[in-house]
Structure formats: structure tokens, C-alpha cells
Fold:
Amino acid sequence: MAKIVDSSHSMDKSITLPPDEIFRNLENAKRFAIDIGGSLTKLAYYSTVQHKVAKVRSFDHTAKETEGDPLYEISMQEEVSARLHFIKFENAYIETCLDFIKDHLVNTDTKVIKATGGGAHKFKDLIEKKLKLRVDKEDEMTCLIKGCNFVLRNITHEAFVYAKHADSEFRFQNTHPDIFPYLLINIGSGVSIFKVESEDTFERVGGSSIGGGTFWGLGALLTKTKKFDELLQLASKGQHTNVDMLVKDIYGGSYGSLGLTGDLIASSFGKSATPDKEFSKEDMAKSLLHMISNDIGQLACLYARLHNLTRVYFGGFFIRGHPVTMHTITYSINFFTKGEVQALFLRHEGYLGTIGAFLKGAEEDNPNQYSWGENYAGSSGLMSTSPDLNPMQRARSGTFDMLEMDRLERQLVNLPLLQDPSSYIPDTVDLSEDALAREYWLYCFEEALDGVVKRAVASQPDLPEAAERAEKFRHKYQHKLQTLRHQPL
Amino acid sequence: MSTSKMAAGCERVDSSHSMDKSITLPPDEIFRNLENAKRFAIDIGGSLTKLAYYSTVQHKVAKVRSFDHTAKETEGDPLYEISMQEEVSARLHFIKFENAYIETCLDFIKDHLVNTDTKVIKATGGGAHKFKDLIEKKLKLRVDKEDEMTCLIKGCNFVLRNITHEAFVYAKHADSEFRFQNTHPDIFPYLLINIGSGVSIFKVESEDTFERVGGSSIGGGTFWGLGALLTKTKKFDELLQLASKGQHTNVDMLVKDIYGGSYGSLGLTGDLIASSFGKSATPDKEFSKEDMAKSLLHMISNDIGQLACLYARLHNLTRVYFGGFFIRGHPVTMHTITYSINFFTKGEVQALFLRHEGYLGTIGAFLKGAEEDNPNQYSWGENYAGSSGLMSTSPDLNPMQRARSGTFDMLEMDRLERQLVNLPLLQDPSSYIPDTVDLSEDALAREYWLYCFEEALDGVVKRAVASQPDLPEAAERAEKFRHKYQHKLQTLRHQPFAYGSLTVRSLLDTREHCLNEFNFPDPYSKIKQGENDMALKYFQKAVKSLGELSWEQRQFALVRGLLAGNVFDWGAKAVSDVLESDPEFGFEHAKLQLEERPWLVDAYDQWLERLKGPPHKCALFFVDNSGIDIILGVFPFVRELLCRGTEVVLASNSSPALNDVTNSELQILTERIAAMDLVIQSAVKEDRLTLVQSGSSSPCLDLSRLDKVLAGVVRERHVDLVIIEGMGRAIHTNYYAILSCESLKMAVIKNSWLADRLGGKLFSVVFKYEVPPGHKTTTLDHVPVTPS
Structure:
């Protein structure tokens, strides 16, 4: 492992990077793209991967077949395939990462790095100095939408519905053959609402200044807690009814003739003007979260109705991996649309900008003409960096989250004979919804692992390091199984 | 002067009572006409109580009655008898005061209630249940709760229908902060956004069809609550004051803070707020109370504006009214809401506010209780004398008035005897604006006219006293009138928007309301009587000399006579000066004063051409002054029209205003002229000459509020010519009115300032003859030809 500990460098350069895991295949990397947000940097590159493939070849048929001769010949060949790498890390690591990339970049015909995100201009000079690449800025919103289209099209179970109290928190949506039209609500500091009608037709139909920055800013003023994640933690412990004025606080119960239930919030913070009363940080944070989520949900619903859209995706740092915000947004959307519109979230929402920027730079390679598949081995999975969940994985890779996608050799489409492609679900049992079945099958696969390792080694009798590689495989798969046990998603 | 009067009022300082009972009420001003009050309604909000009651008011009216014609007339006998009679009319009283005063007010009401057949008080508002027991105990009335939202909407419909210039657009940086909207004949459909603690959004489609289409928890309570947490300032008004001094850009993250400038491809300007409070998560930075309050205000106002705009678009509505305590009288919230609506709708939707927004709930509750009296079948009019006007209690504005009446705000509405509707001949009723100059937008003109009315006040007081020589307390009442009107003028100087757009008409009307308030229903009655008497003596001679002229000479003489008659106008200062100093000033003299042709506005040639064509089917004539004007100017002109075969409808005021001839006076005059003149006689007999009331008691004319009977006559008779005479009706108002038939607007400018403004001089003549575009006048077919 290349430890980059250099005392002459600034503090954040002393961070240890696990390079074999987070910047894989850098040697052949080209087409870099970077999306620098308020706190997180997302890097993308295209690389080629050399790997072994098993080939079978028929023996010469003209030769006479001998009894006992195998039917066909098996050989191992080296093949080069295309892979997209996406890495997400905190802005604090940016200099270390750039240095690391520079040291490991072999391929030099890359001249440009596509950049997007609000932080792109702030780090422009640093990037140009370190990587000796010209920073080429791409429009943030265009990147966002390009990225969104890409993941919706290429990643199975990209979108999901969040339901806090259901058997399964995450209900993944089938990849819809036709992804358009949809509404994309990006909740960053503020809110932007896009109507996306095709790959190239999209419009910012609205927005709001009440967004993640408002939660953060007002939350900081109210609670003296300056960290976004900590504010969310406070909120998840609070009781909004101590601060909000409910319908029943005004009318003693529901306001039946207007169809307003007693528990409905009549006025956010409506109780907090009461003289000489103290309010807890948790309660204020919760009330604030409700206020903002409800407002965004209502706006989303109104724009969806105005534009006749039923698919509404939410993204941005306010949402990103935070169950508490997904929950309140979902609740709000359900309330305002009476279930007609579902709030959809994206597994790789944080990568949309960098994917889009990458695609802009890679247009000559025409990545959209291929099908791509998520590589489960190289991808971290949903919420790998969430502080609440999965402490094991977090400890392991720090705050680095990865997505790798393989270019598939053939473009994949629906079987034209499917009765209803949009409702087709290939799998018979969804293990994430069935805890008993999940337990059984995870156990099953773990039990089978020894056998699989044995068989893998046996398949390459002439390669002496096969045993070592097989152990690495065992380790990786075992780890994935453990991850799935904690996060069945 | 006013404070001492207050103290002279019923002082109820009783040490055994609680603190708030020591507040002195100025009862002669705030709970008027309680003796006959019935049908109480109360709307108790979070901080303000609004009380409504119906009462009858006894006041003097001037009546004229013809003397018995069978008796032989003696030279020198007056033409008709003038008497003062007591009349009872209905009035609605609405009073708004702080909840702190509620007990004092209830006690006061109880002590002054004479009429006891009232058993119930309608109540609405969030505080209604809190004060229920107190009200029942104090007033011995059963509290009957009404649905808050229903009351709100009923009240809104009522004010939109009955109060001129109820709705306004607010523009902070415009010449005039308040742009009042014309009363729209059809008030539905509209969106009503009530911003109380939270926000409720109603779609109102008819009197009984309305629906809460949406709402939001981010409302006034959020501003108050969050504001209190952020600034430690617990008072709503103080928070608003903080906000008005703050800089939101210190707290909000703007588009340019993120992108260094605008985000052109998305159409976002650099100054747009990208994230409310987006800068306030910055570690170790302090933010000022003012800046945080301002940012909060923007956040909430923008959000409400955006929701309003989205609901308006979803429901295809363009009229959006805002109300609730967040808005009520607060320029800073009206400004931010307006800004937000303009931003989100790109000007397609206007944010409309209501002058009497705070009263909607209590008006609605009152109407629910008064349904058997059917108040909606009548027309009602705001009484300027008894109403406080917009923002009377705003702390920023008008310290004088605030000091005077404390925090009591009043609205009084008179039931009008007649239902008022549009003149059916208005080209576009929804865009018709009666007034020619909006004084609230024209500071110079405002200054001049306020000065003018102040200068004239002495004369008006003198004349009022003189009109009641046999009533010894008249002088005292006249002083009260002077005081009240002077105060109104001062209020209007500070708040030109108090009663809607300030216009010459509203100044005149306010004076009439104040005169009536102090029982001077017709200060000019005797003067009018004398003038009428004198002019009648010349009628036959005038008609005879006109008959000797050639047709063409006669047409001109008739117009000149009409204009010369119009010089006699006690309402105009220049003329009243001349008349008072030189009673011999006669008709012929007036003709000499007239400007020679070409007149300032001169369409006489076109009019003459028109007269050579076929006669009009029917002319509607809005007449002006009594005396020489009506008798020697108007009647000969009308006589000529009748001779041409044109029917004539004479529209005159229902009640007195200055020296304008009233309908009852005109009836007597017409009888007398008919007795002398066969043309008039047969026209009256054959119903070719008809007298109608205008429904007005103003020296000006609002063609959108006319007696329903008049509108009916206009339709039946197929009126194809409207004649409007006099400065008040044809210049101060209706100068730019567009009618769907031919019209004549005639006046002599008897005010040098106005003459100056119009580019003329004193006694310049305006003779406007207008034909609607595409209108054929030479055809014998009287059906109006509309442009294709």
C-alpha cells in the first residue's frame, strides 16, 4: 500500500489512502471529470481493465475425433474492457487525492478535466497545478440531468421509494424502459426543479430558496450546532409538536369542514413566540426539518401537477443518504398528492453531476450508445458513508464511496414479448422484504463459499498464484455478504 | 383640541376594576349609535377584536314640497316649501380594537344598549371560544359560533361588492404606494390567501361556492415564532420593524455568492436568493437581529408568493387577494409579497390587498346573523365621516390620528336606499375609472385641492349655519362639522390613500358625508329655491328669443346657453365669490364671460353636423346645478331635442349635494315649466320626458354606481345619446369615460388651477362630442352598429 505520508505537506495530506481500493485502474485512466460540491468531491474517470476471460473453442472438425478427447478446447485469454470509475470523498481530501492521481497517472494523452459543481472554480487553480490538466467547466444543471438519465437507464434498481415504517425501508423501482418525462428536484443549498422531457430537452421550471442551506443556516442559528449531520441527528431525536402550532392547538381538534386533521401543522414554529419559554435544540431542529421538507414536498407536488408529471426524483445534499430527510420528503409528497405522486430517490444521486460532466467530455466515445452495468465488486453500495449505518465499512474505507460500471459488450433491451415491460420484475422473491428468506440465503451463500473457493483454485491448476487470488475473492465476497446482512439494499 | 375632547368623553376610571378597564373610551366616536344597535357579531383574533353591529340612524333630510297649485299664486311667494324631516336609515358599524380593551368595551356596550330584543351575538375567530363566557356574562347575549372561513369569504365578497376602491395593488417605489382597483362588476372567481399563523388558500367561485384548495404551515406564526427565537424580540410589530431595517444579503446566500454572478443559462440573476439563511451556518460569525429578521421575512413572503402563484396557475385564476394578520396594514409585508408575486408570475398575476381586510371575519359573521334582513340585496356605501381609513392604527403612519382615537379603527357603512349598478352604456365596465385625476399619484394637484377645500371650509360652515336660521344650536353643530372635516383633510394630507384613491370626488363626497353627519343635509336649499324661483321667471322669455333665431343660430345659442347656465355654480369658489359680491350677475353677463370659439375643447362643428342628421332615439342627460343652469340652460336644450323627436331622460341626484338640483326639486320645476310650455307639457304627458334619480348624492358622477331603475330605463328606451354636464360630472369625473353610444360632455372651467392644468384659462369651455369607433350616426336605424 502506498502510504503518502510527507511531513512537508499540509495536514490533510497525511491521510492514508487505500489506493488499491479507491483509485483503481488509474494507470490507463483517461477522460477525467470532477464535481466539487459544498463538502464532497466526486471524481470520474474512464479506464480500461485487463482481465482474463475463459474462451471455448471447438477442435478442428476435419480431424478425426478420438473417444475421450474433450468436446472443445478451454483457454484463458487476456481481454481489455472499458470501465467507469466514480469516487466520492470529502473536500478535505482533495489535495491528497490529486497528488495521488498525479503520481499514478501513466497515460498522458489526457489534456482536459471536465469540472462542474459550485466548488469547481474555487479549486480550479489547484487542479490545474497538480494534474497539469486544463479545467474545462461544464454547466452544473446539464451535468446533473445527463447523469440522472444515465443512471436511470443503466443501473438496475437505481430509483427507490423510501418508507420508514414499512417492512422494507427501500422499495426499489424497476428500470423503466422509457425514463422520460420526469421531474428532478435538486435540494442543495437551495432547490431547483427541472422538468426533463428527453436527453436534450429539459427546463428549470421552478425553484425555492428554502433548501438544505436553510436547514443548515437556520439550524445553526437556532441550535448553535454548525454541522449538517449533527443537525440531522438532533432533528431525528426531536418532537416538533412542542414548537409547531397544530390545528388542534387552535381549534381544539380537527377543522372538519376544511378537512384538516388535528395533528396537521397549522403554523411551523407557531408556538415559539411564547414569552419566556425555552425550546430544546432537538425540537427546534425537528420542526425546522419538517417545515423545509413539507415546503419542498408541496412545491414538488404543485409543479408535478402543473406539468402533469408523476415521476418525481429527489436529489442534492439535503437528501443524500439521509433517511430522516427522505422520510419527511416522502411524507410530505404523500400528504400533498394523496399518494398520486411518489417521491423517488436515487442510489447514486451524489454522482449525477460528475457522471454528467464525464459524459460531456466523453461524447466522442459515445458512452450513451452502450449499455453499462454496475460492478458490484467495485461499488460501495448505498449509504456506505452514512454515519448511522454500517460502522464496519465506514471504518474500513474512510469516507470514500465508489461506483464502478462495466461497459457491456452488447446493448441490452427488453424481450419484445414481455406483456408489460414496466411492471416486469425478474426476481421471484425480494429478499430485502423477507427477513427469514434473506437469513436463509445469506447463510446458504456463506456455506457455499468454501466450495466455490476450492473450485476456483482447481480451475487454474497451472497458475501458482491462483490460491492467493481465490483467498482475496473469499475475503471480498464474504465482506459483501456481511454488508448485505447489515444493508440488504 | 381633539385630546381634550376625548377626555371630556365618558371617563370610566374605576379603581375596583382591572387595569384595562381604566382605559378611556371616546364613546361619541367609537361606539356610535349603540342605542338602536342590534345584530351583534364579534371576531376575536390573536390580538385584535372586531365588533360589528347594525343600527338605525336618525338624521335630518331636506324635503321640498310644491305648494297647493289650486291656490292663487302671489308674486314673491316661494316656488316650493322646504322642510327638514327626520329620517331613519340603516347603518353598519364595525370597530376594531386590541384584545386588551375587550372587557372595557363589553361593559361600555352593555351600559349603552337600550334595545333589548337582541338575544344572540355571532362570534368567529380563534379567540371566540376563549372569550365566550366573558361575552355571555357581560352582554347577556348567547354566543353563537360561526365557521371562521365561511365568515372570512362572506365578508370578502361583501366588501368587494360594496366598497369603492376596496382592493389595491401595493407598489413601494411607485409615485403612489397604493393603486386602487376599480370595483369589478363581477367579483368571481378569485383566490383568497389568508396569512394568519399559517396560510390558507381559498378558491372562491360564487357566493356559496368556495373551497380550501391549499395551505401552508409557513405563515405569520412562523415569522413570529422563528423571529422570536432568532432575535429574542417577542412582539410581531417589533419584528417587522427590525426586518425593515435589515440587509438580507448578509444572511442569505445569493446566486452570485455561489456562481460569482448570474446563472444565465437558467435565467437566474445574481441577486436572486439561492438559499435563505444559506450564509448563517458559517462558523463563528454573528448576525444582526435586523438582518436575520429581514431574511426571515423574505423567506416567508417569497414562499407564500410562490405558492399563491402556483395555485393561481393550477386553478386558472388571475385575481389573488391577500389578507390575515401577516399582511394587515404592514407595508413591509405587502411589499415583499408583491415582489414575490411579480417575480413568480412575471406580472401575470397581481397581488391585491384589501382596505378592510381586518374586518372580513366580523362582516361575514354579521351577515350570517342578518340573513333575514337580507343585507346582500341592498347596496351599501362606505361612510367617510364615520370610517377611520386605511392604516389609521399603523404605528408608522399618522401619529396624529393614532393619538386621537387610540387603537380604535372604525368602518361605517350606510345602506343605500337604492341598489346601484353600472350604466349599461359603459364601453368596458371593468376598466372604467370615474375620476380624471388620481390625487394620490399627483402631489402637486393633491396639495392644491386640499388647500382649496380648506380655504372653502369657512364659507361652507357659514352657509350651513345660515341654512338653519331657526335652529339655535346650528352654529355649534357647524363647528363640529368644521372640526371633523378639517381633521379628515389633515388625515388625507398624511394618508392620501385612506379611503381609496384620493380624488376631487372623494374630497367632495367626504364633505357631504360630514355635513350629513352633523345634520346639515342641504345647506343650499334656500339658495337653490331662490335661484330656481328667479330663473323660472325668465324661462318663457328665453324660449321665445330662441324661437326667433334661425335653426343654425339656435343650435349654437342653445349650447352657449347651456354653458352659460353652467357658470352658475356655488360649488366652485370663483363663482361663489362673484355671486356673493354681485347678486345682479345675470345670465347675459355669464354669456359674456364665456370663452369665444374655438373653445379649449371644441367639437361643436361635429355636433352641429350630427344635428343635421336623423334625431336620436333617446337622450340621457345628467344635469348639474339648480337655478339658471337647469331652467335656462338645460330645459331649452331639452325642449329642442324633444322637438326633434328625441325622447329625453333627465337624471338628477337622489339627495342634495351643493347646489345641484335634486330629483325632488326637478320634479317640481318640471311641473312648473310644463305649466308654461306646451312642448314640455305634452312630452311629460306622453312620457317622452322622464325624470329619474341617479342614485347619487355627489357633485361628481360615478357611472358604475347608478340607480338600478335608471339602468332599466336606459335599456328600455334604447338610449343612444348621453349628455353629461358640469365640471364635477364631465371634468373631475368621466372626462375620459368611453361610452358605447354618442356622448356630449360639456362644462365651463370655473377653477383657474384646473384651467391651467388643461391649458386653458378661467371660463374656458370644454365641449366634447364623442362617437364610438365604427358607430354609424347617419342611419335611421337606431340599433347601434357595432364594429365587426
